[in-house]
Amino acid sequence: MDKLSSKNYLADGQTDSATDVSIILPIHNEAENINLLYQETKDVLNALGESYEIICVEDGSQDSSLEILKKLSSFDTSLKVIVFKHNFGQTAALSAGISAAQGAVIIPMDADGQNDPRDIPHFLEKIAAGASVVSGWRKHRRDKLFSRVIPSKIANWLIGFITGVKIHDYGCTMKAYRREIIQGVSLYGEMHRFIAAYAAWHGGRVEEIVVNHRPRGSGQTHYGISRTFKVLLDLVVIIFLSKYINRPMHFFGGIGFISFFLGLAAGTASVALKLFHIRDLVATPLPTFSALLLIVGIQLIVLGIIAEMIMRVYYEAQDKKPYQIKAKINF
């Protein structure tokens, strides 16, 4: 592949980045896979002729992953290592790597060997052609059907339906982001999956490519069907944060007013039934519904006021990260 100018990776108004490509590898108990993945990634990046860095975030592994990374980084300064104090999870590891990345293009990958580094040039071609985010699609997945593939398909359909951003595989870690799109985005829970939707909501161009999904090299997967439910819960949060973070009163207050006025309507109806001798108050559930809806409405309006106060504190608070770094290597 011909060398791609890093200027193609930058948005208008952005200054040139010192590094063209940053590869992010969250690592947790992947000692048996690190050496092969490292060599494969190096071979691909060297062939591209781009300047690059490989950032490994060691996420509290219990095996020899850290020792292997220390050895590799001792003779390769392009390999940078962030060491967490203990296990914080994949999203925190990706967030730490993204925050430290210097590349104009940031490409996270799984460290289990299932993502193929030979797909990296295809991502860069799409970015150079103007895409803000390029999402990998594991069209032919090498995972268990009932515990991973089917739940993933259901989750992807729901996410696409709710967000309005139709891509096939939100769960694929291997994506490419322009630096200005992803840096500064706070990631919690499983929210790294929704960056493509976030970018589309803010006018970014999202594209998708089919990637080679390989069988896991060694070790066991850290994820199961329970992760699908966590992703869906995070989806509710990300929609709220994207649309109502600056105006929580519109969300809680809007629902609160609807509940309050329904309560008034139910109360008025129950009184009217009594006055016209149609039905006694004790003979209809309307008074109960009225009291319940009025109370819920008032509570939601008050919650909206509290959320407005918290939102202002949130914007004025210090910039805190959802992780703690024990050490950095080659930074």
Automatic annotation (TrEMBL):
Residues 22-182 form the Glycosyltransferase 2-like domain. The chain crosses the membrane at residues 251-276, 288-311. This is Glycosyltransferase. Keywords: Cell membrane, Glycosyltransferase, Lipopolysaccharide biosynthesis, Membrane, Transferase, Transmembrane, Transmembrane helix. GO terms for molecular function: undecaprenyl-phosphate 4-deoxy-4-formamido-L-arabinose transferase activity. InterPro entries: Glyco_trans_2-like (IPR001173), Glycosyltransferase_2 (IPR050256), Nucleotide-diphossugar_trans (IPR029044). GO terms for cellular component: plasma membrane. The keyword Membrane applies. Pfam families: Glycos_transf_2. One of its GO terms (biological process) is lipopolysaccharide biosynthetic process.
